[in-house]
Amino acid sequence: GGEKGAELSQGLFRDLELRVATGKTYRGRVLSLEQQFNYTGQGGAVKVHRLHEVKREDVILPDQTLELLDRNVGRFVAARDRIKALRFSAKKGLLFYGPPGTGKTHTIHYLASRLPEHTTLLITSEQVLMLGEYFRLARFLQPAMMVVEDVDLIAREREHLQPGQEMLLNKLLNEMDGLREDADVMFILTTNRPDQLEPALASRPGRIDQAIEFPLPDEVGRTKLVTLYSRGVEVPGALMDLIVRRTKGASPAFIKELLRRSAQFQIELGGGEVLHQKAVDSAIEEMVFIGGALNLKLLGGSSELITGLAVHG
After folding, report:
1. Contact at 8 Å (CB) between 147 and 188?
2. Mean pLDDT for the chain?
3. Does the pLDDT of residue 43 top 50, yes or no?
4. Which of 60, 120, 193, 235 could be bridged to 112 by S-S, CB 3.0 to 4.6 A?
5. d(CA 142, CA 180)
6. Which residues, other chains included, contact 127 with Cβ-Cβ below 8 Å and sequence gap of 6+?
7. What pTM was estimated for this model as a whole?
8. Which residues contact 22 (CB under 8 A, 6 or more apart)?
């Protein structure tokens, strides 16, 4: 019941206080709250996630997008104390939006690795019922970065909301409002469906102060992605150009899988370290045409990609 829940919560925070007091246990870490129930009906833990070190050159985004990220995250944090001294708010709210597979979660790992003194709190759509606990953690462990992934799942247009979802959306926005202006807490919300999110956030202006689009990669981006994800396989110049042309409309996730699948076909064909076009053709055939429209969506493809492949195929 509520009493047991409160007791569990108090125990959790006593444990946290002890750990934080004895060292920077959670600095530079990614945390989430886990609901683990045993036969007594009690449970709960703080899960520490392994942070993937992501270098700047591994974040393949347009220069303008990278500049926006640097100014609103790294450089904002560097200037935050002086901003607070001028009596401006220390809170920052960012919205990452774009098609699936365009690097939103990958970029969050990059940003977390650039903020070693921060604790990152990762909230999935399944964990929004614990929003209160997450905000309490953020206040306790600040400076903190709170990440709410796929926020559209709790913030659909009002006419489509179930009563529970409406409460959760209001709770998220109210908790953001409730933090003190001098709280060293940054919010990053991610969504693949900004159209469903826009009405809800537009009715409460000021919670998000910068929306950042994660677009499908252009030719320059796709060239960098093929280079990044080719790993130990050599891609000849002519084949590189062909892959870049044929993947117009593809997400980074699709290109990553295309290179892995091509490497597998290369192995099966008995090829060496230099990638053959036949391996790439076979991978595209399997990923796009044999698998059908559903497989293409699952891999981060688009109708534009099919059109391009039909033209160049």
Report:
1. yes
2. 81
3. no
4. 120
5. 12
6. 32, 33, 35, 134
7. 0.81
8. none
Please give the Cα distance from 101 to 287 (Å, whole number): 15
Question: How far is Cα 123 from Cα 162, in angstroms, rounded to an integer?
Answer: 20
Helix (H) or strand (E) holding 19: helix 2-21
Tokens of 32: 């989430």
- pLDDT recorded at residue 130: 83
Angstrom distance (rounded) from CA 75 to CA 146: 18
pLDDT digits (tens, 9 = 90+) for 3-32: 666 666 666 666 665 555 444 667 878 888
Q: Which two tokens stand for residue 227?
A: 């280079």
Closest CA to 212 of 231, 187, 229: 187
In sequence order, the 6+-apart residues with CB closer than 8 A to the CB of 306 are 288, 296
The answer to whether 301 and 289 are in contact (CB under 8 A) is no
- Taking the CA atoms of residue 10, residue 14, residue 20 and residue 26 in that order, the dihedral angle to the nearest 10 degrees is -40
Residue 111: which residues within 8 A CB-CB, separation 6 or more? 69, 73, 74, 145, 188
User: pLDDT of 177-234, one tens digit each?
Assistant: 888 888 999 999 999 888 877 777 777 777 888 999 999 999 999 999 999 999 889 9
